[in-house]
Design goal:
Helices cover 55% and strands 14% of the residues. By secondary structure, the chain is of the alpha+beta class. The longest helix is centred in the middle third of the chain and has 44 residues, at 60-103. One of its GO terms (cellular component) is cytoplasm.
């Protein structure tokens, strides 16, 4: 084969490659994109993608869409209610815990009140002669009384100590008897028999009192 014939063959090959975008003079970027598209199996764009057809009212697709929306709304409502129930349960739990902390010992506190009553009666009934003769014993009783009152205060127990002449309060006092007393008005306290007590904001025991029944003048 002569050099002229060989050159003609090479020129023909280059022309074929140039026409296919792979030969000399071809755009390298275009050739690279074409190669990547061939490797990925991507077809050249032929135009915009077709838009889906609108759902026709009354069709099976429309009924299915309505059912899905109803199911979505129902699930959303259930979710909201579940959150509200959980929040209410948390609040109830906090309230029960606080009440247990504040009022859980109310029965024990109520059972200790007679101890206070006995100590108070013992101290109130001591005469001067007895105090002089048994001063050490009385000091021990007074110390016990102070410690008991201190423990009451520590746990939110406050004393209700009405005075004679005060108006009877059925929310705080319990009338143990009624008697006509000259110089008093009906409903006035004429005697305090036992102190009352509050546990925080709850009545632990009303004060035991006597009330005048003398009609108001």
């Amino acid at each position: 084969m002569t050099k002229s014939e060989q050159q003609d063959i090479e020129d023909a090959i280059q022309e074929i490659l140039r026409d296919s975008g792979k030969g000399e003079g071809a755009d390298p970027a275009a050739a690279e994109q074409a190669a990547e598209a061939d490797a990925a199996g991507i077809e050249p764009e032929q135009g915009a993608e077709p838009q889906p057809e609108p759902v026709q009212p009354g069709s099976a697709e429309a009924e299915e869409l309505v059912a899905l929306r109803a199911e979505r709304d129902d699930l959303r409502d259930r979710f909201v209610r579940a959150i509200a129930d959980a929040e209410n349960a948390r609040k109830r739990s906090d309230r029960d815990r606080k009440e247990a902390e504040q009022y859980g010992g109310s029965k024990l506190s109520r059972d200790l009140l007679p101890v206070y009553d006995n100590l108070k009666r013992a101290l109130d009934s001591v005469t001067d002669e007895q105090r002089a003769a048994a001063s050490a014993l009385l000091e021990g009783v007074e110390l016990t009384m102070r410690e008991l009152v201190s423990i009451f205060a520590k746990h939110g127990i406050e004393k209700i100590s009405p005075e004679t002449g005060e108006k009877f309060d059925p929310n705080m006092h319990q009338a143990m008897f009624e008697a006509p007393v000259p110089g008093t008005n009906a409903g006035e306290i004429i005697q305090v028999m036992a102190d009352g007590f509050m546990l925080h904001d709850r009545l632990l025991r009303p004060a035991h009192v006597g009330v005048s029944s003398t009609p108001a003048s």
